[in-house]
Amino acid sequence: MKQFVALEELKYTGEQLRSSFAHTTYNIPGDSIVAFCGPCDVKKEYMVDLEDLQKGARIYSESMLHFIVEHHDTDLERAILRQLVLTNIVMDMLNRQPKPLQVRRIHTDLYDGDAKLTVSVATVTPLSSLIHFGINIESSNTPVKSRGLADYKIDPYDFARLVVKEYASEIDRLNEVRCKVRWVD
After folding, report:
1. Low-confidence ranges of the chain (pLDDT < 70)
2. Nearest alpha-carbon partner for 4 in 32, 34, 31, 46
3. From CA 42, how far away is CA 60, in angstroms rounded?
4. What is the spatial distance between Cα 56 and Cα 52, in angstroms, rounded to a whole number?
5. Which site in 50, 62, 90, 169 is 20 to 30 Å from 79, CA atoms measured?
6. CA of 158: how far to CAs of 6, 24, 36, 113, 126, in Å?
7. DSSP labels for 79-139?
8. Reduced to 3 states, what is the DSSP secondary structure of residue 5?
9. CA of 45: how far to CAs of 29, 98, 134, 145, in Å?
10. DSSP label at 140?
11. Is the sign of the CA dihedral 111, 2, 63, 82 positive or negative?
12. CA pair distance 93, 100, nearest whole angstrom
């Protein structure tokens, strides 16, 4: 599982949620988790969540920390389970801050009280499974009540490095566990 944190900003429009994004953008082939900061404004033609599309929801943030995960399998259920792993990693890291937070998970979204911190979606292509997970850095001008990393005085790049390392480690551990059991009759 390759990991990378980009230092240059990139606007997330939804177009980045595609097979080989890490390979074509950062020269990172294979299974990967990449992180970058930048605005978020998902265009309707790239909206993956059908509920959001039907509601006419706007996915927008002036500044967000984005994670794009790609695994080269096409099992949507596995992608959703990996999305939950990533969500739980982020929640645990937020709740372990020096000034402990009380972030809670509702499905694949994270909240502090009634303020939403994240957006997330998992999908598949004919080539791979994909996850976009974004956490607000700034919370102003979002379409819903929100909080962001700046509200907690958390550096997004330091946080990104911790998350990508932990996600890659967790996936490696899952693969090790899968390989150390024997089958039963």
Report:
1. none
2. 34
3. 7
4. 6
5. 62
6. 12, 24, 11, 24, 34
7. HHHHHHHHHHHHHHHHHTSSS---EEEETTEEEETTEE-EEEEEEE-SS-EEEEEEEES--
8. strand
9. 26, 41, 19, 25
10. T
11. negative
12. 10
Is the sign of the CA dihedral 161, 163, 164, 170 positive or negative? positive
The amino acid occupying position 184 is V
The residue whose two tokens read 């992608």 is 79
Query: What are the residues whose beta carbons fall under 8 Å from the beta carbon of 77, sequence distance 6 or more?
Result: none
Q: Which two tokens stand for residue 79?
A: 């992608």
State residue 130's pLDDT score: 98
How far apart (Å, rounded) are the C-alpha atoms in residues 140 and 110? 17
Q: What's residue 183's pLDDT? A: 86
Cβ-defined contacts of 142-148 (< 8 Å, 24+): 142/60, 142/61, 142/62, 142/116, 143/57, 143/58, 143/59, 143/60, 144/116, 145/114, 145/115, 145/116, 146/61, 146/115, 146/116, 146/117, 147/112, 147/115, 147/116, 147/117, 148/61, 148/63, 148/64, 148/117
Reported pTM: 0.95
Q: What is the end-to-end Cα distance of the chain in Å, rounded?
A: 32
> Amino acid letter at 65?
L
